[in-house]
Amino acid sequence: MNKEKSKEIVDILKEIITNPAPELDFKNPFELIIAVVLSAQTTDKRVNIVTKELFLKYPDAKSLSMADYDTIYNIITPLGLAKTKAKNIIALAKTLDEKYLGIVPNDFESLVELPGVGRKTASVVLAVGFNIPAMPVDTHLYRMAKRLGYIKEDEDILKAEEVYKKYIPKNEWANAHHLFLLFGRYHCTAKNPLCKDCKLKIYCKYKG
Fold first, then answer.
1. Which residues are catalytic?
2. Would you identify the CATH topology of the domain 3-21+134-203?
3. Which CATH architecture has domain 29-129?
4. For binding [4Fe-4S] cluster, which residues are annotated in this chain's numbering (predicted)?
5. I need a labelling partner for 137 at 20 to 30 A (CA). Which of 6, 32, 43, 195 fits?
6. What is the pLDDT of residues 38-72, one digit of tens each?
7. Is 195 marked as binding a ligand?
């Protein structure tokens, strides 16, 4: 991979994905961070259905921090992993309320210390919630990194993030994240990718 080839790939993605925007519904960084934590191993569409009810009842960190576990569990059960997610978002809300006066911090180090928040979630909050350059890498971007030659097949997700950042201009990280994410979600899927008419075929190493 090099910067010229990466630019060609991103430019083609811009032609394919005409509206590279988040698919999670949120009105502020608090709603965003909760929605991203809930989105693990489920779809954004399902999360949006659940958070509509959740945020109506618990619109901020203080109200969610005082929520009854069983009530939260019942609301988010359709998303899967409800036990862990309910525990995490209540603990997350408590930490925000007690340590940050209910305000979501806007630095990576503070974000990754929050309950249930990992590297990807922290990066999403920075890029999407605060417009701070970050390159969140999820399973879609990791798959794309391997198929398009950003990394080798045996390299890990941290390497993918490092290489994306190396070959994509910093001011384009957030937009590129959405381009790769949406292309991976709807075109270059894990199973049965739409290879036949793919404009990125000349760059792709997929041999399925």
1. 120, 138
2. Endonuclease Iii, domain 2 (1.10.1670)
3. Orthogonal Bundle (1.10)
4. 188, 195, 198, 204
5. 195
6. 999 999 999 999 999 999 999 999 999 999 999 99
7. yes
